Amino acid sequence: MFRPSRRQLVVAVLALLVATAAAAAAVATASADRTLVVADAESGDRLLERPIENRTEVTLRYTHSVEKTTVEDIYVVDGTELRMDRMIFHSHGAGLPSDAPIERTDEGFVLPLNESYDQFTVAPRPIPGHELVVGDDRYDLVALTDGSVTISVTERGPTDRLSDLLSIDHRSEPIHAKSTAIHS
C-alpha cells in the first residue's frame, strides 16, 4: 500500500491551498461587486437580480400617459445607492418639470439632477410600459409583477459570485432585442 511521505503531504496541501486561493480570486473577479435588485414592494421577494458595476447607468423608461412620449429617469450606481443623474423627456406635460433648469439637446429635454436613493418604488403599469434598461439589456417591469416594486443595489458576497458561475437564474434574463418596442 502506498503511503505518502511527510514532504508529499505538505506539497499536496500547499497545492490545494494555492488552487483554492486561485479559485476564490477567480470568483471574486468573475462578476460585479454589486447586485441590482427588483423586489416585490409588499413581500420583499426578489423578482430580478443582476450583477452590476459601480457607475453603471440604470434607466427607468416609460411612456407619459397623457403626452404619449418617452420619459427616461437615469440613475447611476454609486456604491449601494442609486443616484438620479438626469431625466430626459420629449414634451412638457402633467407631472413633468416645467420651471426647472432644463437643457434642450438631441436626446430631448434634459433635467440634470443629483438625488441619491437607497431604493425607490415603481408601480409598473401596461399603458406607461415601465421597463428597466441596463446597458444593452432591457427588463419589462410590467411582466414581472402586478404590484409595485422596489429597485435597489446590494453588495455581493463570494457566495453570490460562486452562484453566478454555477447556475443560470431566470431572474436575470433580459428581454430579447427583437421585442424592444414599447406598446401603449
Describe this structure in words.
The protein is of the alpha+beta class and 184 residues long. The protein has helices spanning 6-30, 141-144, 158-166, and strands spanning 34-40, 46-52, 57-63, 70-78, 81-89, 103-105, 108-117, 119-122, 131-134, 137-140, 149-155. It has one domain. It has three helices and eleven strands; from the N terminus they run H-E-E-E-E-E-E-E-E-E-E-H-E-H. The chain has a seven-stranded antiparallel beta sheet. A four-stranded antiparallel beta sheet has the order 2-1-11-8, with no helix packed on it. A hairpin with a 6-residue loop joins strand 3 and strand 4. The radius of gyration is 22 Å and the shape is elongated. This is DUF1850 domain-containing protein. InterPro entries: DUF1850, TAT_signal. It comes from Halosolutus amylolyticus.
